[in-house]
Design brief:
- The complex is a heterodimer.
- By secondary structure, chain A is mainly α.
- Chain A contains seven helices and no strands.
- Chain A has a domain at 1-116.
- The model of chain A is unreliable at 1-13 (pLDDT under 50).
- Helices cover 79% and strands 0% of the residues of chain B.
- Chain B has seven helices and no strands.
- Classes of the chains: A mainly alpha, B mainly alpha.
- At the A-B interface, α1, α3, α4, α5 and α6 of A face α1, α2, α3, α4 and α5 of B.
């Protein structure tokens, strides 16, 4: 726990590796382009395997931080990696690189949809895609819940969240602002109890 | 009029972005509540369609917010919505990234993560419920949703296959006269 005995700070082993702004931009441009159906696998591939900017471990620790922060995980990772190599400007070019192509493709798709929405085949295709997209969200959530092997307290807080947001439809921002600190507090209590057991 | 819309877009998405633990798929119920129920910008079916388009495009799922901005106010709407969704959380990531590098207190991070993960998963399931209802047109869509849920749970293939499968099943059903 002591702060001085933690030389393995996320990113501290990056010293020596130099990545310029152009490389950051192009790398994240690639993440955005190949990141169909969620960018997490694409980001891992480009950052760790393709460009070897970070080791597996460094990436995992950055991902851990990116996941607990609000916002898109990959955007958070792009910010942190860009900042570590090139400061604020590096963070900016990384995020712009990441979002540029997806935004262009999105606008093209949306324009096509607006023009052809009335064509019967297009309507059916979109209806089917929407139903499938809903299944993706449900399936991914169930898979995560299954793989995480949650503690009893975690299950309780997960169920509270589902009930409050999905069931009673309470305002999301306020509800999360109340539940999140309680859940973190509970996790802290659980952590201390485990330490004491040892 | 247009400025009022841009302002409304920013005001709607900035607070939601700040609680999007685990990405935009956590806050779909909040987005749906705002743009469909409270502001009346679109009906539930259009919301489901925009979400489908955002899922079919590459990039973070949070781009559904950019697409809603585009739908409401064109290019300016797209830019404002994207900034509202990504700018505040990016500043936060920058600050936390630097802070963590210094203190490197991995234990505290792990405890915070342990507290937030169940909420992220719960939010995502709640999102699944809301988006399933929005996409619901009867037995066919219910079957497609159930099938893609199974697909995600059972195999690790690219989810784009599931989206394509849903589209094809729906078109086939239309041709066969099975569903309107």
């Amino acid at each position: 726990m002591s702060k001085t005995s933690a030389p393995a700070a996320p990113g501290s082993t990056l010293i020596g590796r130099h990545v310029n702004r152009r490389e950051l931009f192009l790398g994240f441009l690639k993440v955005g382009l190949i990141g169909f159906g969620g960018t997490a696998p694409a980001a891992h591939h480009v950052i760790v395997e393709d460009r070897t900017w970070l080791s597996e471990r460094e990436y995992a620790s950055l991902l851990g931080i990116g996941q607990i922060l609000p916002g898109a995980n990959t955007v958070n990772i792009a910010v942190m990696i860009g900042d570590r190599f090139q400061g604020v400007s590096g963070a900016c070019v990384s995020v712009i690189g990441l979002l540029a192509m997806p935004l262009v493709i999105l606008v093209i798709l949306a324009s096509l949809y607006q023009h052809f929405a009335t064509a019967p085949g297009v309507g059916a295709a979109i209806t089917g895609t929407a139903a499938a997209a809903a299944g993706l969200v449900v399936g991914t959530a169930l898979k995560m819940a299954w793989r995480l092997r949650p503690t009893r307290l975690a299950i309780v807080f997960g169920l509270i969240t589902i009930a409050v947001i999905g069931g009673y439809r309470l305002p999301l921002v306020e509800a999360v602002a109340i539940i999140a600190p309680l859940s973190i507090g509970a996790a802290m209590w659980e952590h201390r109890a485990r330490e004491r057991m040892r | 009029m247009k400025n009022a819309m841009l302002w409304a877009i920013a005001r709607t998405f900035v607070p939601l972005s700040l609680v999007a633990i685990g990405g935009a798929n956590a806050i779909l119920p909040g987005i749906h509540h705002q743009v469909v129920d409270r502001l009346g910008w679109m009906d539930s079916a259009t919301f489901a369609n925009l979400f489908a388009i955002a899922q079919a495009a590459p990039g973070p799922n949070a781009l559904v917010v950019s697409l809603i901005g585009w739908h409401m106010a064109g290019l300016a709407g797209l830019l404002v919505a994207s900034l509202a969704m990504f700018a505040p959380t990016s500043v936060m990531a920058l600050a936390v990234g630097r802070l963590v590098k210094r203190m490197a207190d991995v234990h505290l991070l792990q405890v915070i993560q342990a507290g937030l993960v169940p909420i992220a998963v719960g939010l995502m399931l709640a999102s699944g419920i809301v988006i399933t209802r929005a996409a619901d047109r009867g037995w066919l869509t219910a079957t497609i949703t159930a099938a893609t849920t199974w697909f995600v749970l059972r195999c690790n293939r690219n989810p784009l296959w599931a989206l394509a499968g849903g589209a094809l099943a729906s078109i086939a059903a239309m041709w066969l006269g099975l569903a309107g």
